[in-house]
Design brief:
The complex is a heterodimer of chains A (364) and B (201). Chain A is 29% helix and 20% strand. Chain A is an alpha+beta fold and 364 residues long. Chain B has a 5-stranded parallel beta sheet with strand order 3-2-1-4-5, with helices on both faces. In chain B, strands 7-6-10-9-8 form a 5-stranded mixed beta sheet, covered by helices on one side. Classes of the chains: A alpha+beta (364), B alpha/beta (201).
Chain lengths: 364, 201
Amino acid sequence: MTAISESAAFKTDETYTPEGKYQFRNSPEGVRRLPFPFPDDDYMYSMNLEPHVPAGNGALRAAFDIDEHYVSECTHRAQMLSDMPGVHYLALPHMLEAQWDLLELIFESYARDFPEHFTLTKNGNEWRWQNRLLGIDDSFTFGDPSTLPMDPMEYATRQAQGEFVVLEEKDNTLVIGAGMTTQRADYSLKFNLGMSFFEFHGPVPKLHEMGILDRALKFLLRMKPGHPVRRVNWSLTVNPRLETSVETLPEWAPDRATVNGENAGEKVYLRIELQPLHRLPRSNAIVFPVRTYLVSLAELVEYAPDWAKRIHRALASLDPELVDYKGFHRYHEAAVEWLSRHDDGAPLATGYPWAPEGIQPGGN
Amino acid sequence: MLITGIKSRPVYDELTPMASGLIHLAAGQGSGGKALVRLLRAMTPEQLAATTVLYSTESFTGQNYLIDLQQFKVRDLAVFPTNADAVSGLDAYLATAKMGTRLYLTGSEGFIGTSMQVATSYGMNRDEVLREHAGSFVRRVWCAHCGHYSENVTHRIFECPGCELNLIVRDHYSGRLAAFQGVKADSEVPGEMPENEELDT
């Protein structure tokens, strides 16, 4: 079995917007390959960083995962960038070297992990990039921005799934220097650009007090090129909407008031964030990618019943401060109530699904 | 919705003469005049002779320390009617500044923040700048929806002059924009407003 099973073809007609009527769904294989982020029945923050080495046949097989939504997500990104220029992609002027680093990392990884879809041919600095999924065949000179139609980072990340935030190391901290963030969860890139590690984590409750940030920063500053690390994070969102930035809050926040105990299964989506961090070789910057996966509670129940039980328990016991911070206090109860009908209370395995003995999707 | 405990808000200093400085540039506004007076009193005659003071008489609380500032034998005292003029004045001074320049900023958070934007644009490092907050903690707020900047915001909820939405001020500060973040207050259910309160002014 490959990371993208033969039966799950790339979908080209999916949408992530109300205008497009949210034409989005996951195949059974698409659900069962997810990096499910609840190792225990109780959830609390932890640093949960681990070496980013290939694990299993799902989302953790490749350095940068792509799945059946690749083509439609790239289309969505292009649409968001053209709808709101200067909001979703920004780079400080001195970040050019890191941009080339990132382009190289994404293209090399894709070409290595998905040779059936991507080819990178290098002749010195003369590079040829073939992306058969998007029908792109371009040649350019690595390091020479004039040979690309746009910034190297924008060029590469328009062809990549997930968000990319580039952090530069400065005065013993990490500062946001650039970002491609058309899928961001309730923050503003424009506002956060230039912020340091502690500043941009400012609004997250408990982290500072728990000492997690100090340890995480120390750990990240010791990162070396070629030794990526990863963590997973999660939130809930209403409708399969990828773009939930602060800027467009008035458009999507009303959806939170539409959830009830009957429709929660269809309306409420678990939003999984897979974050594989890499130190970049020339610029010494660190790229913080956020690969976002959307899956409805109903899809979990249907295709991954044990994961549905687990998320029921994790949500039911979640700290109210986190419910508030993650923005779902209005429909938390409805989601828990809906999920409770699909939880028989059977004991579940502990650990991430990609760990030995970890929780598997169940069913089938 | 409201997130409390402001980790991103700048931590302010107390203005004291920086011994490493060859040239001193002290910019203040309104109540910040008091901190400037204290700074100048602590300086040696040599330091005073190498000091330029920029003072804006615009004040939210009506404090004016111009007469006190005029008592010191500094190289130059430039007075501005508005904070925006003083920040432009700072820009002009820094354009010709030499190595060894030390910068002192004091006044409202908005004044210090916009002055820091200028200092940063000239590549000044944090160890070359001291910042002392003075007066009320009125906030400068950036509207996330229309990009408008509102000065001297005193309440948690206010109407954005740019887009006329009712904004709630989040306790999250951007040094690059020199502003707090404002977002639509009744975004989940239109008309359902969170409780208003006076900010920590």
